[in-house]
């Protein structure tokens, strides 16, 4: 399979960009993990300062998928840590994108998986399973 860059995808699809169907991550995401580039079918979750649903999904076989977690952009705690990332790596996930924070950065950086997040934060998330929802299982790649 030939490598296609994000810039090439954007250049080839201006109508999808103007219609809001194609978007690129803002450049405020930090890079963690050993994979600098990753892609795969996307699963999207929406959570807020609670990581129970995130952990449940990463316990599944990843089959090269990418988990996108809309954490509401919270910078008050981490919704992803080293243990779930190790599990995701072992279960075959290609990557994780978090609109929120991660922790255990040294452990994550040792994993053969791609992780993007807004920042790192030492405090862990709640584990109450209060408001997490599955948004979509999409066959698009990032």
Structural class: alpha/beta
Biggest sheet record? 7 strands, mixed
Q: What fraction strand?
A: 25-35%
Mean pLDDT: 89
Shape: globular
How far do the termini sit from each other? 15 Å
Low-confidence stretches: none
Task: Provide the helix percentage.
Answer: 10-25%
> How many beta-strand elements?
7
Structural Rg: 15 Å
GO biological process, one term: regulation of RNA metabolic process
EC number: 4.1.1.112, 4.1.3.17
Family: Belongs to the class II aldolase/RraA-like family.
Cofactor: a divalent metal cation; Mg(2+)
How does this model look, in words?
There is one protein chain. The chain is an alpha/beta fold. It is built from five helices and seven strands, in the order ααββαββαβαββ. Strands 1, 2, 3, 4, 5, 6 and 7 form a seven-stranded mixed beta sheet that branches. It is globular. The chain starts with 5 loop residues before the first helix and ends with a strand.
Topology:
Elements: H1 6-12, H2 14-18, E1 30-32, E2 42-46, H3 52-58, E3 66-70, E4 78-80, H4 82-90, E5 95-102, H5 105-109, E6 114-120, E7 133-138
Parallel strand pairs: 2-3, 3-5, 4-5, 5-6
Antiparallel strand pairs: 1-6, 2-7
């Amino acid at each position: 399979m030939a490598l296609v860059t994000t810039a090439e995808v954007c250049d080839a699809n201006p109508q999808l960009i103007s219609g809001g169907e194609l978007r690129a991550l803002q450049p405020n995401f930090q890079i963690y993990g050993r994979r600098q580039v990753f892609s795969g079918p996307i699963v999207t979750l929406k959570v807020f300062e609670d990581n129970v649903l995130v952990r449940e999904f990463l316990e599944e076989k990843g089959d090269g998928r990418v988990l996108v977690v809309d954490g509401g952009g919270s910078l008050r705690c981490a919704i992803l840590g080293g243990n779930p990332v190790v599990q995701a790596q072992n279960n075959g996930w290609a990557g994780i994108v978090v609109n929120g924070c991660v922790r255990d950065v040294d452990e994550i950086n040792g994993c053969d998986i791609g992780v993007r997040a807004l920042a790192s934060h030492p405090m862990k998330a709640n584990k109450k399973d209060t408001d997490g929802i599955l948004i979509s299982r999409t066959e698009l790649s990032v």
